[in-house]
Fold this sequence. Notes:
The protein is mainly α and 65 residues long. It has two helices and no strands. The protein has a domain at 1-32. Helix content is 85%, strand content 0%. The longest helix has 34 residues, at 31-64. The protein is elongated.
Amino acid sequence: MKVVWYLLILAALALAIFNFIQINFENPFGNDSTIAIGGTLVSLCAIVLIFIFLISKSIKEKLKK
């Protein structure tokens, strides 16, 4: 099951990189750029949430022992 979480992190990282590349830095608040900025932020939030979940899971396992 741990492999699935790491694959999700990898997929979210790939989406964050893809969306970051799509940002037009000359007009960052243009139509396409706002979608890319939103996609980048959502992907990074997903990575943070997965890391929080993995850390809480490891703490739970340590408390059981």
